# Entry
Amino acid sequence: EFTFDKVRIIGNKAFYNCTNLQNVELPIVEKIGTSSFENVQSISTLNCDNLKSIGKNAFKNTGIISISLPTLNSLESGAFEKCSSLESISMPTITGIPANTFKDCIALSEINLTAVTTIGANAFVNTSLKSVFFDRVTEVGNYAFKDAKLLEYAVFPETENMGTGCFQGCTKLKYTYLISLKELKANTFANCPTLKSLWLPEI
# Structure
């Protein structure tokens, strides 16, 4: 267990592959660099209420169960990719979810991302989300929710641009609300056998 009560910045790969590191207390840390905790599967809790910036792959393939980051405003790609134990996230101030951020977080079922306006490619691939409501999102990247096997409802009232295959393989998807979407791209709903309701008034 580590407590850093004076450290404000953790550099790139600072704890990369430190496989026995368990709990980390980061009360005043503001920035965590690229791959800082990557592959540290033994970490289950993360306390960093002052964190503002997370680098690429910073927590990739760790054992974190839940995340609450009330002051985060910068997030790079793959930050929590392959965190297979991650169940819930709260990042109420973040505006962009980059590519691969939660890809293969197979237990992820609860999210609080109320300020988000953009979602990158593969951001929520293979998660356990059952419903998503993003009332500020204007752009969604390719395959953003691909293979989210439990997803039933998807509501994006402000989304004008949505990439290829966004909901491909969402085998329980029933309802989508995309009233601002301008173009339906290839494979958007491929392999969605339970889809019943689709509203696309702008197409």
User: Anything to note?
Assistant: The radius of gyration is 17 Å. DSSP finds no helices and 18 strands in the chain. The first strand starts at residue 2 and ends at 3. The CA atoms of residues 68 and 90 lie 5 Å apart.
